[in-house]
Amino acid sequence: MTGFLNVDKPAGKSSAHIVNAVKRLAGQPCGHLGTLDPFATGVLPVGIGNATRLFDYFLGKKKTYIARFFFGATTDTLDPEGERTVGGEVPAESEILKTLCDFVGTFDQTPPAYSAKSVDGRRSYELARRGESAVLPAKRVTVDEFCLLRRVSEEEFEFRITCGAGTYIRALARDLAGALGTLGYCTALRRTASGPFTEETAAPPDALTPENLEQHLIKTDSILSFSSIFSEDRRLLQGQKVKTELGDGLYKFYFEGEFYGLAQAENGLLKAVKKLC
Predict the structure, then answer these.
(1) Angstrom distance (rounded) from CA 254 to CA 146
(2) Secondary structure of residue 35 in the 3-state scheme
(3) Which of 95, 253, 255, 264 is the most buried (most CB within 10 A)?
(4) What pLDDT, in 10s, does the model give residues 235-244?
């Protein structure tokens, strides 16, 4: 069995917990394409078998979230599970709208202290839990959309955010509040899309069984946007290069009508580079 499951992760479960549950059902190695914090819900694509080899090809895929930010307080984790500190005023809706444009585009973002970033071989969240401070370098992130959807309560607002990989929504809550002269944190987070995977086709984990797993399985080739090539040249299966008139780039490679994996054309030569069947 190889392919993807689009799992609708519930709140209170870690991404690793979901992956382990799928692994037990599938009896195959599994891995997720982009973690979700335990308090967050939504789209968690899980690769099964050889599909896990595609991780690098999804690093640049966009993700969309619906997030709620609370203003006038924060927590040490920047989410509802941390220790709360009150401070600052609740900004006017007009001020939020005016400031959002500063957070659309490519800019540097400092990851939260409670994150999985490695600091001298240790996870940042492990240091934070011990009360040890760690200096996390800022990294370039891209936010394509940051839209205010509605005011949920006096202090809480709901946003839609579309961003590139590596963007921390909790850090956006912190930084947006800081730009408005107050404190803020993320109270709720749902991922509605991750690349080609959307919430409309996501299945809750408790709906998955060994008997229906294949019914929910998404074929690997169906979510790859590369052009398709068909060949019956067995030299490709043996790792050899063959002559081609294809332009340079990656292709979905089918051998004798069956999907095999990815092939790369370069300088008039074609080679199978990744087996995914």
Answers:
(1) 40
(2) coil
(3) 253
(4) 999 999 999 9
Burial class for 95, CB neighbours closer than 10 Å (0-12, 13-18, 19+): middle
DSSP state of 121: T
- Indicate if 37 belongs to the active site: yes
In the sheet with 242-243, reading across from the earlier edge strand, the strands are: 228-231, 249-255, 258-266, 269-275, 242-243
Set 8, 37, 79, 221: catalytic member:
37
CA distances from 253 to 65, 208, 261, 272 (A): 33, 30, 5, 8
Using one digit for the tens of pLDDT, what is the confidence trace for 151-188?
A: 999 999 999 999 998 899 999 999 999 999 999 999 99
Per residue in 77-127, pLDDT (tens digit) is: 999 999 999 999 999 999 999 999 999 999 999 988 765 555 455 555 554
Q: What is the sign of the dihedral through the CA atoms of 227, 232, 235 and 237?
A: positive
Coil, strand or helix at 19: helix
Decide: residue 259, CB within 10 A, 0-12 exposed, 13-18 middle, 19+ buried.
middle
Task: Please indicate, yes or no, whether the overall pTM of this predicted structure exceeds 0.70.
Answer: yes
Kindly report the backbone phi and psi dihedral angles of residue 136, in degrees, each rounded to the nearest multiple of 5, phi listed first: -95, 125
